[in-house]
Amino acid sequence: MKHAAEAGGWEIAGAIAMVVWMVVMWAGVAVLAVGLRKPLRPWVFRTGLAVIGLGVLAQLGHFQEHVLQVGYWVGHPNSPSWMTPWGTGLANGFGQVDHTKPSLGMEILHLVGNFHFLAGLAGVALVTHHAVQSRARHWGRMGVVMQGIHGLEHIALTVSVALGAKAIGLSTFFGQLDPGPGLWTYRVWWHFVANVIGTTIFAIALWQLWRERATIAAPYRDRARTVAAKAEPAEPIEGALPALP
């Protein structure tokens, strides 16, 4: 029986850090969703921007992994799928959850990476909630749908491997492809194309968010000013009669 590769302390720490990163991002999404149901405050807008920023950083790392995988495939089309040394190290770190399933760590790594990406897109969709006509909102919501489907794909792949079966998903023809160049090629390109589409949508959403930043930020500033104005005591009118006892 094949076993997962051993992992060093830094590889395990890196895997844990990725999970913490994901939890922090989704906690931010939850705070943002709740904050939008109450009188708007500037900190709600800043929370959304923080979630989006973490999503950008995560997707830069995630996307470069797929670009390099395709680059390797171009030179070695009949070889097994390749991962960068840092990607392999993180996969080994995740793989410590079950040594009897060699590919489980890789599946968990990509699952976590995709949920980083989805949280960033959710941040765009939520922070533009009150800018109904915003193009950034349009592209952000489109990204959430597209990446949500991609996320379900990775859930299916991870759960099927965790249960001891072949990786089952759209990118493996639901486990019907036997290991070999056909499966490796199809899966590498399937995930590359999915990430190109998702990253392009994210980039357009970010561009529109920048262009429309004044309109999108206005409700958070205006509502805060209104609340502050109501909280200030009214100044007495000069010459007014005192209230009767």
TrEMBL record:
Organism: Nocardia transvalensis
Membrane-spanning residues: 12-36, 43-63, 108-128, 149-168, 188-210
UniProt cross-references to Pfam families, sorted A to Z: DUF6008
Keyword Transmembrane: yes
Keywords associated with the record: Membrane, Transmembrane, Transmembrane helix
Protein's name in the database: Uncharacterized protein
Source organism superkingdom: Bacteria
